[in-house]
Amino acid sequence: MGHSASSRIQEYIGDPIEDNAPVPAEKLEEIFQDIQSDIRFDHQLNGCLNCGICTATCPAAHYYDFSPREIVQLMWTENLDGIYDAMQEKIWSCAQCYTCAARCPFGNSPGGLVMLMREVAIKHGMESAKQVLRPFSRVMLKLISTGNQLSPDMINPDHFADWGPNISKIDAPLALLRKAIPMPTLNTTKTAWEVNLKTSVELYTIWEETGVLDQLETIDENLFDVICDLMDEKREDWEDFLEDQEDEDDE
């Protein structure tokens, strides 16, 4: 008896795309393929018993319109409309605590899938990603310009209004509190420790080659321009330093 000549290749990916899809079908497929092609995808999605343990133990599910089980089901059924819809708001409610991954009997990691969806949302410059990351622009500038850390005075109600009333708990006389801590590196609240010039230039090269700066440009063009100017200045400083070293060697 011969084998069937039927093919498993579908004309569409997963569930049929609705006639009133939020974006063209080709765009929905591109977004899903970007998620699915990530090397982490197969390690984070193995199946689903629909038991609901992930949602029952999820802190975010108790306070937001968010369900880890829904994320897994959307991915498992390849529901492109639903995946796109979840990327507009729901995925930003996840606290990335990975309780879901620890409890899932199938070894799924809904939190890991959410991380992939967030990265793809940034890659495609979705408005949801821009809105979520906008309050962190000053922090991102500090991290990228110094290559290291942010200073504690940056965590305040003015810059993190979206954190709600609990932000007042850390709105204190930080300069005074930091001086009370017997660690010299923690005395300052206005500056952060800067890495040396060579390391800064190397970090900029890594961010360029890995596409970090390209993604930043899709989210915040103004911040991208500022960081590029900083990078150019530091690269010029590095080249000047190398020239000075060569002149000293010649002498």
How would you describe what is shown here?
The chain is mainly alpha-helical and 251 residues long. The chain has 13 helices and no strands. The chain starts with 24 loop residues before the first helix and ends with a helix.
Q: Count of DSSP E strands?
A: 0
Q: Any low-confidence stretches, pLDDT <50, length ≥5? A: 1-10
Annotation field: number of helices: 13
- Succession of helices and strands: HHHHHHHHHHHHH
How many domains, as an integer?
Answer: 2
Q: What amount of the residues lies in strands?
A: under 5%
Overall geometry: globular
Helix content: 40-55%
Mean pLDDT metric: 81
Structural class: mainly alpha
Main sheet overview: none
What is the CA–CA distance across the termini? 87 Å
> Rounded to an integer, what's the Rg over CA atoms?
23 Å
